[in-house]
């Protein structure tokens, strides 16, 4: 810009700085009833800048065509024409024409954003499109690439706001590929947009330029994540969220606790999809980065100052939340392993176990390593800590008790951590959820335990944990939770009952059981039936009437509960015929309910097909057994 | 910005909501005679609607049944008078495509059942004639179409617009909403045309309609754009010379069914605007991640909109119940087999 009067140029630069100031700083002070005052002022300044530039251009144009043609760089004829994005044009060193176009483009860009901020979208769009067109004239170079990316980011946002997701996608993907190409082929820290109108002294350092440029690209990735999510491509969206997180760490542009929670949430997505390696990495990173936020203030400090109190609260709570995410990791890992290993009645299939163990030995390690390196979080300082945390828990499915126990212990450790914050007194729902998770951890582990006695003990731990709570909770306010607990307790007791029986049968040579065992068995059997019954009773109206029609959420559980109660009653052991009779009658009653309900509500049949089938059979067979018993009783009298 | 004004208007309580029920269409009757009518007027202020979750009742400031005529409807909207008195009045028609908005606001093509707009034009000029001895009147109008956030002046034909654009190179006349010194909202850049009779005004209206974007959605009369008709009536008191300006805005909104298209559920507070829009700030990354799946094992956020409104239906039964079931079922099957075969045997089993 040799021909430009330097004082004129300085005036433009000042105007620009003013406009920036008005937009970013002053606008925050604008009054409620005139919220865009500063932005309108900024707009005027920008327009003036635009006009000045245009008039320079007119002047320069004459000069250039006069004496400076030799200075123009050699131009390759555009190959595929002036494409939308200028992708196919070769990069070149900055040409004066290019720089001029970029400057005009920058003003159009700022005008565009200005209009968008003042909710004048059509105008905003027009300016942004003008900016794009101006940039097409020059090649993508370090002078213009930053603006190139920014304008497309803005257009992406604009079109997404109009529900035109594919349009948004187009702009953003272009930005993405231009960035990638630029970094591959050039890579020099590009001019930041604010630099178009600064004087020499105020130019940014290379470091700063890179930082801003990279931040723009991070936003591109972030916006693309949202676009893919809106298009239903959740897999891709997750990958882009992952990249966004990665970049935030690399560029050191993050707030620790916020980043940690986001990573923890992403881990939950991965866990849902069974991708435990990625999930573990996210969680490990979350834990490490959350540590960067520093120690939580002590209780003493919290007493003294409110800020300290809030800070302590927040830090402790968020870390406890991360612990809960870890619990889910361990839980799901155990249960997914179980699903792989179980046979058709839910016991560990040793053949499958062998098979999977063999397969694991042969697994490709290299492939894993490569996949992993693509997703690594962290920076120089944190890589190690994250890796060492990962080593503490496996991401592979546990295939035997030892491996399962290792996972269990990690989970249990996090249970303790989480409960430390989510005390029952103050966080009832959260506390109970954690207990339920703990119970599930035990259930997961029990599957792998070969010793039946020990297995039984694990179930007993579950009962001890959940039973008191179930009975303590207010029936009215915690209905849903209580129902869950009742059902779980019923099943645990059922499980324990079966285990006791198996154990007893193994020991005794003869078929008969000793009194002690019978008593124990009956106790467990009744307890199971009791809880199923409690669940059923919870469905009644305040007057104690069963609902005529079962709601969708409770339909299957209610019918299954009936079915199980029926079965349990028929299993109670008694030497007293009258007691036997009573039990059989109760059993029949419940089987009948299932059959009758399904007759009256055909839509229910599909939810309990098998149970219904068996109930019908029993309704046919039990009366015969009952009659035989009655006959025997009559005989004996 | 918009929300702020919405709240202001709400607070002033000068909004009245009327409900008009349209008659059953022939296709609907053909489809299901009995189930065709789902909306019933209970009284002048309430209706019941048959929904998939049972009957729901809604309250309005006034309810018009399917039998109500265009005349009835217009008669009850006393707003024209207010506009003539110098107030700003606005009438919106809101509803799904096919619900009858255009019929209510404009009328039918054959002009046998005039809607609110043409009737307003009549009313205005009738009033003017009646009071021509006391007041001097000036009537002008602008007519706009709002499509994709863009305001289109309907007095300019598409061909004319293109020509204008080509000439001024990027400085095409844009219509923007602004507020003037007096605080009145107006459309800057929109052409206002004067009219001195009902016929003239109606002719302007017809010209505007011809210039509208119409994209066929569910029926030919509907469109994806909003129609905004603004009529300014300036009256000068011949006695003391005072001038007052009233404005009547008549808006026929685009079909609201687009909300259903985005799949926004009732309990999610996402407006159509926000459904697929991009959040600019990286601080919302957490929300984006949480929304990747509806069934995250744990969402570590408190008070997040998503956790508040997400229907995390927690199953009553355990996931593993299936296995316990299968064991129970296998056992029972065995028992049944025994019972069957054991019918001839005396001994009890199990």
From TrEMBL, chain A:
Entries under InterPro entries matching the protein: KBP, TPR-like_helical_dom_sf
UniProt subcellular location: Cytoplasm, Cytoskeleton
Pfam families, per database record: KBP_C
Taxonomy, superkingdom: Eukaryota
GO CC annotations on file: cytoskeleton
A single BP term in Gene Ontology: efferent axon development in posterior lateral line nerve
Keywords: Cytoplasm, Cytoskeleton
Positions of region (Disordered): 56-95
Task of the protein: Activator of KIF1B plus-end-directed microtubule motor activity. Required for organization of axonal microtubules, and axonal outgrowth and maintenance during peripheral and central nervous system development.
Family membership noted in the UniProt record: Belongs to the KIF-binding protein family.
Annotated protein name in UniProt: KIF-binding protein
Automatic annotation (TrEMBL), chain B:
One GO process term, biological-process aspect: microtubule-based movement
GO cellular component annotations of the record: microtubule
Species this chain originates from: Labrus bergylta (ballan wrasse)
Binding residues for ATP: 95-102
Protein name: Kinesin-like protein
Annotated ranges, domain Kinesin motor: 14-308
SMART domains assigned to the protein according to its UniProt record, in alphabetical order: KISc (SM00129)
Cell compartment(s), UniProt: Cytoplasm, Cytoskeleton
Family: Belongs to the TRAFAC class myosin-kinesin ATPase superfamily. Kinesin family.
Source superkingdom: Eukaryota
MF terms in GO: ATP binding; microtubule binding; microtubule motor activity
Keywords per UniProt: ATP-binding, Cytoplasm, Cytoskeleton, Microtubule, Motor protein, Nucleotide-binding
């Amino acid at each position: 810009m040799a021909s430009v009067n330097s004082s004129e140029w300085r005036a433009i630069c000042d105007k620009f700085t003013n406009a920036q100031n008005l937009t970013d700083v002053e606008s925050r002070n604008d009054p409620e009833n005139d919220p865009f005052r500063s932005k309108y002022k900024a707009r005027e300044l920008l327009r003036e800048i635009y006009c000045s530039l245009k008039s320079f251009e007119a002047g320069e144009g004459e000069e250039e065509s006069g004496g400076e043609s030799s200075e123009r760089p050699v131009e390759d004829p555009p190959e595929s024409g002036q494409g939308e994005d200028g992708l196919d044009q070769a990069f070149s060193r900055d040409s004066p024409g290019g720089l001029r176009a970029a400057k005009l483009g920058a003003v159009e860009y700022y005008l565009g954003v200005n209009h968008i901020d003042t909710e004048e979208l059509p105008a905003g769009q027009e300016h942004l499109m003008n900016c794009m067109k101006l940039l097409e004239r020059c090649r993508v170079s370090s002078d213009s690439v930053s603006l190139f990316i920014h304008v497309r980011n803005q257009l992406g946002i604009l079109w997404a706001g109009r529900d035109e997701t594919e349009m948004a996608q187009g702009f953003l993907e272009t930005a993405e590929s231009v960035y990638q190409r630029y970094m591959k082929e050039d890579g020099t820290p590009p001019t930041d947009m604010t630099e178009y109108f600064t004087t020499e002294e105020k130019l940014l350092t290379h470091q700063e330029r890179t930082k801003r440029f990279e931040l723009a690209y991070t936003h591109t990735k972030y916006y693309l994540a949202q676009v893919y999510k809106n298009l239903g491509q959740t897999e891709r969206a997750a990958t882009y969220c992952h990249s966004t997180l990665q970049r935030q760490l690399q560029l050191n542009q993050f707030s620790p606790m916020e980043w940690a929670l986001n990573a923890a949430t992403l881990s939950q997505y991965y866990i849902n999809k069974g991708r435990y390696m990625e999930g573990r990495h996210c969680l490990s990173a979350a834990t490490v980065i959350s540590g960067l936020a520093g120690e939580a203030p002590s209780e003493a400090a919290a007493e003294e100052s409110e800020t300290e109190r809030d800070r302590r609260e927040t830090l402790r709570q968020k870390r406890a939340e991360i612990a809960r995410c870890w619990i889910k990791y361990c839980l799901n890992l155990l249960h997914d392993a179980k699903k792989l290993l179980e046979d058709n009645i839910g016991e560990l299939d040793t053949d499958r176990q062998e098979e999977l163990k063999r397969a694991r030995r042969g697994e490709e390690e290299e492939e894993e390593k490569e996949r992993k390196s693509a997703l690594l979080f962290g920076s120089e300082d944190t890589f190690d800590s994250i890796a060492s945390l990962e080593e503490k828990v496996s991401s592979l499915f546990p295939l035997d008790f030892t491996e399962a126990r290792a996972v269990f212990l990690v989970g249990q450790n996090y249970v303790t951590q989480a409960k430390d914050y989510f005390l029952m007194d103050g966080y009832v729902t959260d506390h109970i959820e954690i207990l339920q998770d703990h119970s599930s951890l035990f259930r997961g582990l029990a599957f792998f335990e070969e010793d039946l006695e020990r297995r039984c003990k694990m179930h007993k731990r579950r009962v001890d944990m959940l039973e008191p709570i179930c009975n303590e909770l207010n029936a009215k306010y915690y209905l849903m939770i209580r129902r869950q607990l009742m059902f779980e307790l019923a099943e645990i007791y059922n499980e324990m009952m079966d285990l006791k029986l198996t154990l007893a049968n193994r020991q005794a040579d003869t078929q008969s059981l000793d009194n002690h065992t019978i008593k124990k068995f009956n106790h467990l059997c009744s307890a199971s039936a009791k809880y199923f019954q409690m669940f059923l009773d919870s469905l009644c109206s305040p007057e104690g009437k069963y609902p005529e029609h079962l709601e969708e959420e409770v339909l299957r559980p209610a019918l299954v509960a009936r079915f199980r109660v029926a079965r349990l009653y028929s299993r109670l052991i008694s030497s007293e015929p009258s007691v036997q009779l009573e039990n059989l009658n109760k059993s029949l009653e419940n089987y009948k309910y299932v059959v009758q309900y399904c007759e009256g509500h055909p839509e229910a049949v599909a939810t309990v097909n098998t149970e219904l089938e068996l109930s019908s059979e029993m309704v046919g067979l039990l009366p015969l057994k009952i009659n035989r018993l009655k006959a025997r009783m009559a005989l004996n009298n | 910005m918009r929300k702020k004004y919405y709240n202001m208007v709400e607070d002033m309580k000068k909004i009245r909501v009327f409900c008009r029920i349209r008659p059953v269409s022939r296709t609907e009757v053909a489809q299901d005679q009995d189930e065709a009518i789902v909306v019933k007027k209970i009284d002048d202020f309430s209706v019941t609607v048959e929904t998939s979750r049972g009957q729901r009742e809604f309250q309005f400031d006034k309810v018009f049944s399917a039998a109500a005529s265009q005349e009835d409807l217009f008669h009850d909207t006393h707003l024209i008078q207010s506009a003539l008195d110098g107030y700003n009045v606005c009438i919106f028609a809101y509803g799904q495509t096919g619900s009858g908005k255009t019929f209510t606001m404009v009328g039918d093509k054959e002009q046998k059942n005039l809607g609110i707009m043409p009737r307003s034009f009549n009313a205005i000029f009738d009033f003017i004639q009646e009071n021509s001895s006391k007041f001097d009147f000036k009537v002008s109008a602008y007519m706009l179409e709002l499509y994709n956030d863009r305001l289109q002046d309907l007095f300019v034909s598409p061909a004319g617009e293109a020509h204008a654009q080509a000439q001024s190179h990027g400085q095409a006349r844009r219509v923007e909403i602004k507020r003037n010194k007096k605080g009145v909202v107006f459309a800057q850049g929109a052409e206002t045309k004067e009219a001195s009779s009902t016929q003239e005004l109606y002719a302007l209206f017809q010209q505007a309609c011809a210039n509208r974007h119409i994209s066929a959605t569910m029926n030919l009369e509907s469109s994806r754009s909003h129609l905004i008709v603004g009529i300014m009536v300036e009256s000068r008191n011949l006695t003391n010379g005072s001038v007052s300006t009233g404005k009547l805005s008549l808006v026929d909104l685009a079909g609201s069914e687009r909300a259903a298209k985005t799949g926004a559920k009732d309990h999610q507070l996402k407006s159509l605007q926000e459904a697929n829009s991009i959040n600019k700030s990286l601080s919302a990354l957490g929300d984006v991640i949480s929304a990747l799946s509806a069934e995250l094992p744990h969402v570590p956020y408190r008070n997040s909109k998503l956790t508040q409104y997400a229907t995390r239906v927690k199953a009553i039964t355990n996931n593993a119940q299936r296995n316990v079931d299968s064991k129970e079922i296998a056992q029972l099957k065995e028992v049944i087999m025994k019972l069957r075969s054991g019918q001839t045997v005396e001994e009890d089993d199990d």
